[in-house]
Amino acid sequence: MGNYIVNNSKFNPFSYSELLQPVAMADTAHKELEASMGDLSTNAGKWSGLINPTTESDVYNTYQNYNQDLSNSAG
Hints:
Blueprint: H1 16-45, H2 57-74
Helix pairs in contact: 1-2
């Protein structure tokens, strides 16, 4: 008697909505991150007029470094 292999597997391709779901989730996360970076930039800009660069040079330099890093990260 011979050896027989029975294979009952069936091809079940992904639907378009199943393929699109990870891309849509990544897009939503990217938009949320972009919005939060914009909020940080807006709120950080409020402090620029409150710091006196001549009397508070260490605070001003720290703020400028933070603002530059934020700009580099956002853009």
